[in-house]
TrEMBL record:
This is Probable cinnamyl alcohol dehydrogenase. Homodimer. GO terms for molecular function: cinnamyl-alcohol dehydrogenase activity; zinc ion binding. InterPro entries: ADH-like_C, ADH-like_N, ADH_Zn_CS, CAD-like, ER, GroES-like_sf, NAD(P)-bd_dom_sf. The lineage of its organism: Eukaryota, Viridiplantae, Streptophyta, Embryophyta, Tracheophyta. Its EC number is 1.1.1.195. Pathway: Aromatic compound metabolism; phenylpropanoid biosynthesis. The keyword Oxidoreductase applies. Coiled coil: none annotated. It catalyses: (E)-cinnamyl alcohol + NADP(+) = (E)-cinnamaldehyde + NADPH + H(+); (E)-4-coumaroyl alcohol + NADP(+) = (E)-4-coumaraldehyde + NADPH + H(+); (E)-caffeyl alcohol + NADP(+) = (E)-caffeyl aldehyde + NADPH + H(+); (E)-sinapyl alcohol + NADP(+) = (E)-sinapaldehyde + NADPH + H(+). SMART domains: PKS_ER (SM00829). Pfam families: ADH_N, ADH_zinc_N.
């Protein structure tokens, strides 16, 4: 697909783009479309770094359309509204998550589950309706159809709220649709990263019993004392887990006790030991999208009549509901705020699991012509 033509889209924006699979980004000047009748223009102030950004820029999913401008946890202020826009005004605090358009006419769209539309247009690395590739939130501004914009409720700060636009809805959605939002039920959270830590927070807000299953023993204290998890199981005895036939590394006390598990691991694993944590008829919901296939034995599911399901983001309606729920419960992400110049180091740390628990780029203060004045910024 041809890159954006300056003549077609004269408005330019500053951005960080990956040009190859090195996992690194660098400043670039991109084009953004003019604000259409149904669009809003947003000054981006913060953008979270999701592990999907890293999978994509490293081309782990084999679908990168370079240059890739990642970012789908976008928070900022409306600077312009198109003439048909009804929901928003200039100055509103808003967010944009993983999708920026869908067909709006298929069964999924009509049922309000547009996150399952086969013509979904993702916030970045996706073919837009005009044939260009979408660019995400590692940028100082974006233009989005108002239907795909979320209002930040009062009390939810833009920096700590930005990760809710992807991580938040991705964990809230399966809790809501799989009955894993009921007080007293026991839920497991595999992987204490960006998704996992907000999963613990939502589950506690729903009044559930929460066990974290983690490869990182050093996260135990914080998981239990700060995030409020009730139990913490270390799964880092990697040899045992890979063999897939031993529970010596897992606490026998939690075996067969969980109504559901949200699996947020970004890497492949043998599912055997994890599925054994479920009660009969329990549900394992896959959220992580590792590069390599998972290993699973039919016996793990058939015995006990267990369900293995997947869940992909959430609808716009559910995202707004999740944000309002977060506001009501004072629920925000734990973030490490970083500058534009720290993004490459952050990507390396994210790959090693060294973040507590979401990097958020301070776009508003660190991505400007002035801040990049020392080096020339190439244009696409
Ligand atoms: N389904 C959807 O709609 C969405 C999917 N995703 C996907 O979800 C995944 C998680 O994203 P995010 O939370 O941002 O990533 P993070 O890197 O923040 O967290 C992932 C966590 O997975 C755990 N982990 C890593 N390797 C392994 C392993 N080999 N075995 C078990 N656990 C492991 C680590 O937790 P610990 O140290 O506790 O073990 C790590 O912190 C990614 O694959 C991402 O692409 C993201 C957004 C939406
Ligand atoms: O971070 C969210 C990504 C979700 C996603 C789901 C499905 C798919 O094909 C993707 O490329 C991304």
């Amino acid at each position: 697909m041809a890159p954006v033509e300056a003549e077609q889209h004269p408005r330019t924006a500053l951005a960080l783009a990956a040009h190859d699979a090195s996992g690194r980004v660098s400043p670039i000047r991109i084009s953004r479309r003019d604000t259409g009748d149904d669009d809003v223009a947003i000054q981006i102030l913060y953008c979270g770094i999701c592990h999907s950004d890293l999978h994509t820029i490293k081309n782990e999913w084999k679908n990168a359309n370079y240059p890739v401008v990642p970012g789908h946890e976008i928070a900022g202020l409306i600077t312009e509204v198109g003439k048909n826009v009804k929901k928003f005004n200039v100055g509103d605090k808003v967010g944009v998550g993983c999708m920026v358009n869908t067909c709006q006419s298929c069964e999924s769209c009509e049922e309000g589950h547009e996150n399952h539309c086969s013509k979904i247009i993702f916030a970045y690395n996706s073919h837009d309706r005009d044939g260009t590739i979408t660019y995400g939130g590692y940028s100082d501004m974006v233009v989005v159809n108002e239907r795909f914009v979320i209002r930040f409720p009062d009390g939810v700060p833009l920096d700590k709220g930005a990760p809710l636009l992807c991580a938040g809805i991705t964990v809230y959605n399966p809790m809501k649709y799989h009955g894993l939002d009921e007080p007293g039920k026991h839920i497991g959270v595999v992987g204490l990263g960006g998704l996992g830590h907000v999963a613990v927070k939502f589950a506690k807000a729903f009044g559930m019993r929460v066990t974290v299953i983690s490869t990182s023993p050093e996260k135990r204290e914080e998981a239990m004392e700060t995030l409020g998890a009730d139990a913490f199981v270390v799964s880092s005895d990697a040899n045992q887990m890979k063999l897939g036939c031993s529970f010596r590394s897992l606490s026998m006390a939690v075996k067969g006790t969980m109504h559901g598990i949200l699996n947020t691991a970004s890497a492949s694993m043998s599912m055997y030991a994890y599925l054994a944590l479920l009660k009969p008829q329990g549900k394992m919901i896959l959220l992580g999208l590792p590069e390599k296939p998972l290993q699973i034995s039919a016996f793990s599911l058939v015995t006990g009549g267990k369900t293995l399901a997947g869940s992909c983001m959430g609808s716009i309606r559910d995202t707004q509901e999740m944000m309002d729920f977060a506001a009501k419960h004072g629920l925000v992400a734990d973030v490490e705020l970083i500058g534009t110049e720290e993004v490459n180091e952050a990507m390396e740390r994210l790959a090693k699991g060294e973040v507590r628990y979401r990097f958020v780029i301070d776009v508003g203060n660190t991505l400007s012509a002035a801040s990049l004045a020392s080096s020339p910024v190439p244009a696409l």
